């Protein structure tokens, strides 16, 4: 979504205020879309502020933030020569081998004010209902479709302008296999593929339902096109190019690294230790050290499924006596 209502108008033509919009019905429709989108942007800012996700809210970005050990320096710069690359590869330390638990600073217990202001549940559901209403309206969907077409056109222009750079990059040496150093072009030639053959389907990294029943199938999903060499080139740090491509992907495309928790648990089992260690880090020192490196929690569900609202006003968890499970949005509020 555009960052402000001005860019929305710019995409629509930048003429919303002029006499060039002769058709009053079109103008009214556009103004309605602008108003709805502006309210959605304001709600996004509201919850970003409440959840301390704005620029400058993260304590890790402040000079007063102390963490041991310090984050490592980037190791993915392109090596000067083949000799240097092999030398760096052989001298590389195992991640974490220099970590000493006793040198970690474990703060004392503190009595601080709550860091967050949590909106009441009825306010949260009212705001959520408004957003769901906006995204389900026909004019908003049509506008979103046109904007996607616009962005696709910009992407195609980018591809045309960067075509020669792609050719140059494909000549980079990326892997050492069978006693020789291969360029990216040679790797794709050995796979009988070109970059134009790549798609979501050919990459075949979807985690389908059957993937979770067999560990061998699950592991194969980490290999693009089923090829371990592509995984080594693009998704590893311990490789010939010292993780350069993974660093670029992480910086430009990926959101975060994550640890998955697959279990049936009560919310208290997960969050009570987090509350305890936040108040007094010495209750769970290992957890305190781990949390210094965690940026957030995520709950996963199929959000494409429409959920039927079974209550006009949702009861508190202790009062939930319906046989049906609460909707996903209800879980998210309390999490």
From TrEMBL:
Cited InterPro entries: AMPD, Metal_Hydrolase
Domain of life per record: Eukaryota
Protein name stated in the entry: AMP deaminase
Pathway: Purine metabolism; IMP biosynthesis via salvage pathway; IMP from AMP: step 1/1
Keywords: Hydrolase, Metal-binding, Nucleotide metabolism, Zinc
EC number: 3.5.4.6
Molecular functions per Gene Ontology: AMP deaminase activity; metal ion binding
Region (Disordered): 69-89
Cofactor: Zn(2+)
Family: Belongs to the metallo-dependent hydrolases superfamily. Adenosine and AMP deaminases family.
Gene Ontology CC annotation, any one: cytosol
Gene3D superfamilies reported for this sequence: 4.10.800.20, Metal-dependent hydrolases
A GO BP entry: AMP metabolic process
EC class name: hydrolase
């Amino acid at each position: 979504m555009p960052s402000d209502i001005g860019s929305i108008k710019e995409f629509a033509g930048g003429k919303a205020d002029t006499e060039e919009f002769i058709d009053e019905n079109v103008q009214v429709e556009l103004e309605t879309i602008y108003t709805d989108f502006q309210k959605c942007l304001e709600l996004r800012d509201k919850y970003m502020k409440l959840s301390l996700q704005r620029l400058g809210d993260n304590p890790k970005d402040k000079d007063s933030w102390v963490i041991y050990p310090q984050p490592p320096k980037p190791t993915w710069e392109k090596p000067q020569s083949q000799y240097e690359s092999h030398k760096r590869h052989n001298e590389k330390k195992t991640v974490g081998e220099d970590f000493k638990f006793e040198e970690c600073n474990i703060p004392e217990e503190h009595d601080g004010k709550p860091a967050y202001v949590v909106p009441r549940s009825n306010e949260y559901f009212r705001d959520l209902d408004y957003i769901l209403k906006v995204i389900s309206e026909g004019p908003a969907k049509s506008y979103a479709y046109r904007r996607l077409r616009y962005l696709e056109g910009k992407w195609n222009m980018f591809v045309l302008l960067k075509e020669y750079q792609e050719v140059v990059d494909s000549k980079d040496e990326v892997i050492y296999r069978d006693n020789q150093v291969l360029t990216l072009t040679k790797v794709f030639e050995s796979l009988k593929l070109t970059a134009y053959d790549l798609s979501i389907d050919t990459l075949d990294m979807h985690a389908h339902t059957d993937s979770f029943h067999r560990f061998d199938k699950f592991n194969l999903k980490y290999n693009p096109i089923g090829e371990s060499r592509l995984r080594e080139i693009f998704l590893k740090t311990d490789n010939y190019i010292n993780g350069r491509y993974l660093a670029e992907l992480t910086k430009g495309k990926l959101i975060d690294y994550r640890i998955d928790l697959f279990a049936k648990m009560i919310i208290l089992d997960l969050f009570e230790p987090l509350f305890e260690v936040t108040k007094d880090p010495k209750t769970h020192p290992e957890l305190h050290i781990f949390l210094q490196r965690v940026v957030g929690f995520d709950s996963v569900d199929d959000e494409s499924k429409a959920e039927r609202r079974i209550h006009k006003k949702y009861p508190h968890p202790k009062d939930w006596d319906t046989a049906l499970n609460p909707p996903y949005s209800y879980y998210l509020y309390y999490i």
